[in-house]
Amino acid sequence: MNTGKLPIYDDFKGTLAQGPDALLACIEFDLSVRREAAASHFESRINELETLWQSI
Questions:
Q1: 27, 8 contact by CB (below 8 A)
Q2: Cβ atoms within 10 A of the Cβ of 52, count?
Q3: For the chain, what are the domain ranges?
Q4: N or C, which end of the chain has less CB nearby within 10 Å?
């Protein structure tokens, strides 16, 4: 079930107690993981489309 919260929301609560720099680092890490996953997904889709195009 999607609650609309970031998967690491609970980590944020503990990280916030360490200060804003720690929280920012946690957010930046989460975004980098999401970026990498998105890039991998789109690369896979592009490969599928290229394969489909070549089969036409």
A1: no
A2: 9
A3: 9-55
A4: N
For the chain, report the end-to-end CA distance as a whole number of angstroms.
39
- Distances in Å between the Cα of 28 and the Cα atoms of 6, 8, 32, 49, 51 are 12, 12, 6, 31, 35
Q: What is the pLDDT of residues 3-56, one digit of tens each?
A: 555 555 556 666 667 778 887 888 888 899 999 999 999 999 999 999 999 998
DSSP, residue by residue, the chain: ---SS-TTHHHHHHHHTT-HHHHHHHHHHHHHHHHHHHHHHHHHHHHHHHHHHHH-
